[in-house]
Amino acid sequence: MDEFWSHWPDVRADLAASIADGTPVSEETAQFVTERVRRLSPALTWELSEAPPSEEPSGFDGLDTASEQSLQDMLESLGSADSIDDLGIGGTAPTCALILSAGSDDEARIVAERWKRAAPDDPGWRFFAARPADPAQLSKPLTWDGHELDLSHVSVSLRVNQQLATIEAGVYHPDFMFLPDDARQGVAERVVLLALGEDDYVRWIGSVAPLAEKPLDPLPPTSLPTVVHQLSGALGSGGWVTLQGRIPLRGSVQISVRHPLHRRDFPAFTLYVHVSVGYTSTDQDKQPADPSAAALEEYTATLRDIAADNGALFAHQTAGGQRRYHFYLDPDSGVLPAFEQAARTWSESKVQVSSTLDPQWDTINQILKPIRRQLGG
């Protein structure tokens, strides 16, 4: 990572000029960047584009839900600012984007995520560890192997494979009849990629096929994100699910897990951390009761706050007076010591904390296997 970014000032201007002028990158610069991307991972490719609009909220977003105190703070900042620049609102949006793509290779996607996290703060650029969705391109011409197609004429057919929790997409364009098979396949895949972005493509698309005839019930390709949202909601509202059972002599067991959970959701989180604590106040099923229940909620929130953008809670199990947490962290972030220190602040019992590198997510996949079998997906 350090080698790539140490050379960024050497190529930045040439890459930006290529985007601004709409011309190819010079052969020397292209080779230079390609060599350094391949040193990161042979499976990675790179491309340039104009920066898509940022999804970050503006300074005034959320006014409808702001508290009275936050509104007062905002008014005070408005009154004390010497200029609009002091407010951190607006400013010049990035115009250039450098994108790495791992395709379906999860190992390369981890490398790309670390590359992005190590990127410098460059106001003129946005850096992507996977191709972002770009639905605006679906109404514009696309040149593919010397053929120009107007993507506004594309329609799709979508079929949800409930057993595999994936989408089978068919893509139709009236000019497909003039293209060879490999070009039709390439255009079809690019359409789905533009609609969803690379990560959702890998998460949810089971197959993509070009269609020789227009679907009987055609949909615009821009409908793909809605179908993905519906599918993820059917599998668990895109958040958490909780299952309960009973164990003889131990009372009830409760497990809460992120579901659905895909490797692409947290590509940099490869350090598994297990935290186990006991609680003293229980109900008749040996589940937490106040004050332990409230203390556990506060403790969980503290651990998640410490992990912040460098980790996530994937699951927790509660049974017989014991709560077990399953976190994954970014091992390169340096957050582990602070996380372990926070974990050991629990006062009702001895705390057990252990960690191990688990880039394949073997531990959480083993925990989730019976749950996925029951829920589907």
TrEMBL record:
Species this protein is from: Murinocardiopsis flavida
Disordered as annotated region, ranges: 45-65
InterPro entries xrefs: DUF695
Superkingdom of this protein's organism: Bacteria
Domain DUF695 as annotated: residue spans: 265-366
Protein name according to UniProt: Uncharacterized protein DUF695
Source taxonomy: Bacteria, Bacillati, Actinomycetota, Actinomycetes, Streptosporangiales
